[in-house]
Structures are given as C-alpha cells and as structure tokens.
Amino acid sequence: MTSPGTPPETPAGDLERWRLILGAPAGGATGPLGGDAAARDRALDWLYGRDPDLARRGVRRGAGSGAGGTGDRSGDRTGGDGPSALTTVDWLDDVHRLFPKETIERLERDAVERYEIHDIVTDPAVLERIEPDRSLLRAVMRTKHLMNPEVLALARRIVEAVVRELMDKLATEVRQAFHGTRSRRPSRIRNSRNFDFRATIRANLAHYRPDERRLYIEQPRFVSRTRRHVEQWQMILLVDQSGSMLDSVIHSAVTAACLWGLPGLKTHLVAFDTAVVDLTSDVTDPVELLMKVQLGGGTDIARAVAYGAGLVDNPRRAIVAVISDFYEGGDPGRLVREVRKLVEQGTCVLGLAALDEEANPAFDRDMGSRLAAVGAHVGAMTPGRLAEFVAERIGS
After folding, report:
1. Percent of the chain at pLDDT above 70?
2. In order of start, what are the domains of the chain with their CATH numbers?
3. What pTM, to 2 d.p., does this model score?
C-alpha cells in the first residue's frame, strides 16, 4: 500500500527494461543488473555504445569503440573495469541467445546499416552464424569488393537465400499479371473467367424488369484472353547502379529474371554509371548477376538511354524502363533529347524513380518533369506493378 501522493512502485521487470534502454547512467536509480539482464546490457552497449550522440551528451564510452572497425567493444558504457571486450562472433552468439527474433533482426540490421560493422559480412566465422535477410544482402553488395574468395563463397549463401525469397514473391505476382491477360476484344468462348460484367449489363438493359427488380441476361458478353503466341515485345531495363540505387538494382535483377522467358516478351537488363554494361546474358541467374554488379561511380543516364535505343527492334512494341534517381552527371539536355527520340518513334518510355517493394520515390523532380514533358511516364512502381503494366501493354 502506498500513501497518497506517493507514486506506485515500478515492477522489477519494468525497472530492468528502463535500465537496458537508458544504459549505465540509470544504474543509480534502477540498481545493478545481474544474470541475463547484465548480458543483454553488455550486448546492447557493444552496439549502441559506439553512437557519437553519447559523446556529445558527455557519456563516456568504453575502450575499443568506433564505428566500422573490427567490432570489439568494452562492455560498460561509462568505461572502467568492465568485462573483457566482445568480438563480433561473441556478440552474435549472445544476441541469438538473449533476445527474441524480432529484436535480433533489428540489432543485426543496425550493426550493418547504421554502424557499418563490416566484419558482419566479411568475417567467415560471422557469416556462418548470421541469418540472411535483405539488410545483409545490401551489405554484401556494398562490401563484396573487400572479400577474399572464401568469404565470397559464404556471402553468396546470403545472396541466394534473399534472392530466392524475392523471386518466390515476385514470381507469383508476375504469373497473376500475365496469366490469361484480358484483352479488349470480345470472345465467343463462354468461360466464367472471361465474363465481362459491365459489357453484359450494357447489352441487356432493355431486359430489366422494374416490377421484379431483376435484369434478365439474354446476351452475355465475354472477353478474349491474350494469345499465348503474341507478336514479340521487348522489355529493356536500364538500371542506375550508383550506390543510392542499391535496392533498385536488386529488385531489377529479380524482376528481369521473373520476366525472362514469358511468351511474347524479350527481356534485356543493362546496368550503368558512367559506363554501360549489358547484363542480359546473366538474367536467368540473378545471384550471379548481383555478384557482378559494381556499385558507385558517376551517372551518365543519357548514354544508357542511347544504348537502350540501339537494342530496340520494333519501336512500337518496345518498353524502355529507366530506373534511376535522375540526377544526371552527364549532359541533361542530351538525356531529354534521347528520351524524346524514343517517344517520337513510338516506344513506351518509363522513368522509374524506385523499384523496391515500397516504391518510395526519391529523385530529381525537375528532370522528371522535363522527361514527362517529352512523353515519358515518370513515377514509381513496385516490381509487381511493373509486371502488370507490361502485361497490359502486351495484351492491349
């Protein structure tokens, strides 16, 4: 029982959680930690103790700190005679033992993306223990140039696992988009899947019985499905491989692999920075393709568009998708001219600002407006929506 005006006692579990959140400076109010709680605190300190905000707030960090190093950290946020330093392998073992799955994923993601602890993806002992996910795939893509052949072989496991997951998801969306794509042509084949509800209503309005509130169908309407052997279309993906477009590179590789071999569609995949690299020969193996991609460098989008234009066989049956942030490092005027020429010859030009699953657009809007003004479709599409767009074009 507490007296009036006295705050209720905080349960021990809540105190422990606040101590883990606030770190050693809260030790005076919460008391010392023991057992697994102390081990959790040590694991959290190993990672978040390197945050530069701690130094700005006057909180001392233990020896061995510093982002992007070997990962060795002292176990006490305030320094002193704490436990011996953890290695990255030790830390991963502790994290997997002490935290639930959702927390483990967050800690590993922060280690890779926020603090750039490279030995997460360059140390064979670490790679053997870590669970593949998309943040690790991005880290492998950024650091594979640092890896020796042994480490590359282990890193490939991460790439394969994540690509397989992405392929399974996107392949379903692509099949749904392309399987029996509806056309605008009427059909005599009476199949429930081909039933055209709106056209049927329009064709039978004369048979509506107001007294019965019923519409009698005497002339049902159906639409045809796209023929399996349609006239050949081309899908040319031009992918900016600068560092900021990493997610787009990953999803473009997977998208191209899913589109490859679909009836009536010939797919090309081209990566570019200031140079242009045609990766079409590797489209069927997106893992190998991603292991070959070299991120970084400048950006010459106009040069890539000119190369893509040279691949076009039939302008009126070609889709050129430029996946970039549209910050042109080359000649902006030339880029606009190259896109205008493609549009004027009848080619569909897509300017895609993002190609990841969220499709959050981040691009040079001024250049996007200039390209839209000459006839390009500029915006953001998920891989699934891109597949739907292509299917609609082929089926129209």
Report:
1. 73
2. 12-131 (no CATH), 190-225 (no CATH), 233-395 (3.40.50.410)
3. 0.64
